[in-house]
Amino acid sequence: MRLPVFLLVLLISSFRVSAQQTPEEKIAALGFTLPPTTAPIANYVKWVKVGNVLYTSGHGPTNAQGETIKGKLGATLTIEQGYDAARLTGLQLLATLKSAIGDLSKVKRIVKVLGLVNCTDTFGDQPKVMNGFSDLMVAVFGEKGRHARSAVGTNALPNGMAIEIEMIVELEK
């Protein structure tokens, strides 16, 4: 199938604009804003940087009103609600990342992600839930946002939150 020339030009020009946007501009173009960073809920730090690698602690989903999204996938939450919670958690992680490095353009690659999904024993769609996070990272960072990932089901998370995600990020030197 051949694309009309005007459609091809439109696609190429929109790719160029998208490729030239900073991650922060992409977040805004997606209709999101980074939330304020939160303090740890126990005796740990939100991130540790070793060389050009940044490790984050587990983060959970907090909505615009500052409320934690709580619940159990397969019982009180749907896959779609879990997907949204994972995306919110991604925004929390991006806010922490930005506070740690100052500019999200310094991200060389999202390397590894561990996603914990609060769910029933019979729930098996953890990867679909975690796609909320992964889709956001790819939308913000493009190929740099593609990462290795584990999506694990668990019977409980701190404060009853629905999702907990941690990530490892390689930074530009």
Rg of Cα set: 17 Å
What is the 3D form? globular
Structural class: alpha+beta
User: What portion of residues is helical?
Assistant: 25-40%
Compact description:
The chain is an alpha+beta fold. The protein is built from four helices and five strands. The protein has one domain: RutC-like (60s Ribosomal Protein L30, Chain: A, 2-Layer Sandwich).
Describe the structure.
The model is unreliable at about 5-15 (pLDDT under 50). Helix 3 packs across helix 4. The radius of gyration is 17 Å and the shape is globular. The protein is about 35% helix and about 20% strand. The protein is an alpha+beta fold and about 170 residues long. It has helices at about 5-20, 25-30, 80-100, 125-140, and strands at about 45-50, 55, 105-120, 150-155, 165-170. The longest helix has 23 residues, at about 80-100. About 30% of the residues are buried. It has a five-stranded mixed beta sheet with strand order 1-2-5-3-4, with helices on one face. The chain has a single domain (about 20-170), classed as RutC-like (60s Ribosomal Protein L30, Chain: A, 2-Layer Sandwich), CATH 3.30.1330. The protein has four helices and five strands, in the order H-H-E-E-H-E-H-E-E.
